[in-house]
Amino acid sequence: MRVLIVLLILVYCNGDVVKSEESVSNLQNAPNSQTGFAFEMLMAKLNSLEHHFVEKQLKNEEQMTVLSARIDHLVKTVENLSWIVQNTAETVNHLGLNRKHMQHNVTVIQRDLVQLLAGQKLLVTTHQFGEYLRQKGCNTSHISFLSDEHYTTYRSCNKVPFSQSGVYSIRPEKPFKQPFTVLCDQEYESGGWIVIQHRFDGSINFYREWAEYKDGFGNLDGEFWLGLERIHLLTASTPHELVILLEDFDGNKTVAKYDRFQIGSELHNYALTRIDGYTGTAGTL
C-alpha cells in the first residue's frame, strides 16, 4: 500500500515538475516581475504538495503501526490457542489413561459396598431384638448372654419377626447342616417368601454353566440365582409354594402362583417333581 501511494505521488510530482519546467521556461521569456511572482506561486504549490505528501506518509505509517500491533496480537493469540489445544490434548490423553483405573476402582468400591450392606442387613442388633421381645411382652432382663448367632438365624423367611424385606440368615430343617443367607420378601402377601431368583436390570449375565446354576450366582442385593442345590434341599425338606412375579418396562404386572413346588436332586438333573395348584394371570408352566 505504501509503495503504491509513493509511486502515485511521484508520478503526480513528476507531472508537476514537467509543468513547472515549462512554466519556468515561459517565465524566462517574461518580464522580471512576472517571473518572480510565478516563482513564488510555484514554490508555494511545491510546499503544499510536500506537506500533503508528508501527511499521507505519516498517516500510512500510523496505519502500518496499528496493523503491525494487531498482527502481533493475533500471533500471540494463535500461540496461546496452540498451547491450549496441545495442553487439552495432553489432558484428554491423561484422562483417558486414568479412566480405566477409575472404572476399576469404582467397580471394586461398588462390590465392597454391596458386601458391606449385605453384612449390615444380616446383623440384627440387640436393641432391635429387645424391642421385638418387649412388644411380645417378654422379660428381657435374662437374655443378655445371647450372642448374635442365637437370634439372627431363622428356620425360614416366614419365621423372621420383621416386616422389612432384606437379607437374612436361615437354617431350615435337615438336610441343611450350616445356615446360609437368602433374600426374604416380607411384603408380598404378608411376607415370609424366600426369593430364589431376582432379575430386573440386566446387570447379571444369566447365560451360565451348569455348575453355576447348581451353586448359584449373583448378589443378594441385586440380581441373582439362589442355586438348584439349595432349592432342591429347601423344597425337599418341607412343602413350599411358588410365586412368579413378572413386570415389564411399562409397569404391567402378572403373577403365577402354585400351591406346591418341588424339584429333584442332582441325580435327577434337578427336574420338577411337583408343580400344581396354579392360580394367577401369567399362564401355567
UniProtKB/TrEMBL annotation:
Task: Provide the leader sequence positions.
Answer: 1-15
Organism ancestry? Eukaryota, Metazoa, Ecdysozoa, Arthropoda, Hexapoda
Give the NCBIfam families listed for this entry: GGGWT_bact (NF040941)
> What is any one of the record's Gene Ontology cellular component terms?
extracellular space
Q: Which residues form the Fibrinogen C-terminal domain?
A: 148-285
Record PROSITE patterns: FIBRINOGEN_C_2 (PS51406)
Q: Could you list this entry's UniProt keywords, alphabetically sorted.
A: Signal
Give yes or no: UniProt keyword Signal. yes
Q: What is this protein called?
A: Fibrinogen C-terminal domain-containing protein
